[in-house]
Amino acid sequence: MIAPTVLDTFRLDGKVALVTGASHGIGEAMAVAFAQAGADVAIAARNEDDLQRVAGRIAGAGRRAAVVPTDVADAPQLQRMVARAAETLGEPDILATVAGTTLRKPILEVTPEEWDRLLNVNLRSVYFAAQAFARRLVDRQAGYGKIINIASMTSYRGFDGSSVYGATKAAVVNLTKMQAVEWAPYGIRANAIAPGWIDTPLTASMTASRRRWVEEHVPQGRYGSPEELAGMALYLASSASDYCTGQTFAVDGGFTAGNPWPSLPG
User: Fold this and answer.
1) Is this prediction's pTM over 0.85?
2) What are the pLDDT digits (tens) for 58-105?
3) Domain that holds residue 242
4) Close Cβ partners of 172 (under 8 Å, ≥ 6 residues apart)
5) Which of these is catalytic: 127, 156, 165, 186?
6) Do 40 and 67 touch, CB atoms closer than 8 A?
7) Long-range contacts for 103-109 (Cβ within 8 Å, ≥24 apart)?
């Protein structure tokens, strides 16, 4: 019998993953990466047409896909989402809570309705999706599970016009720690990824001047792609990261490490 290698620990053969926000961008890239590593994948979002397209990519990787149309802002739908994934593919071992939305508005202009909308999508959905996922693991004494949450640079740094988004993403970092500590006795690991500026629908509306600012302040000098987060997601979903929990990993081209000096004479 051949002993498993380090590379083998990155495989997800026999696992079932559930990814929210999987109809495009980061969620799509993660779902496809999980399938390429051997997992069957349940994909959730509001747009069923886009989910069907992603399901085709999962099938192209030789794995089963389950399309689960879900509005994560509606808490009761989260219970049904996890149950539907289990009914279709088997009990999920991996949960990636990628669904999110943003708001660019000064603090003095934010309305309570806008506050509630962002908290429902970016924080409440993360909380209750993980609750539904973990409850099933605990009830059946699975002894193993992986949660991957999506934080942000705004979890740590202030940016004008991003107060509500940043508040939700800072909370995700702390929630990830709470999940890690509370569910460690059940073999559940929880970690988060803090993306930098990634080319997704959330950043597509940025002006040319803002894009130039990003390129000038990110040490690598560019936006990242959703696929460049997929490797970190695969690590956190796999047994390669079994001794890692409660952590948030920046994938940001070096932005949180520091910024380049401006070009100065002399």
Assistant:
1) yes
2) 999 999 999 999 999 999 999 999 999 999 999 999 999 999 999 999
3) 7-198+225-251
4) 122, 123, 126, 149, 150, 151, 152, 155, 192
5) 165
6) no
7) 103/162, 103/164, 103/165, 104/161, 104/162, 105/161, 105/164, 106/160, 106/161, 107/163
Within-domain flag for 220: no
pLDDT tens for 216-247 read: 999 999 999 999 999 999 999 999 999 999 99
Residue 214 lies in a domain: no
In a domain, 171, yes or no: yes
Number of domains in the chain: 1
* Within a domain: 203: no
Instruction: Give the integer Cα–Cα distance in Å for 26 and 256.
Output: 20
- 243: annotated active-site residue: no
The CATH number assigned to the domain holding 237 equals: 3.40.50.720
Residue with tokens 């495009």: 24
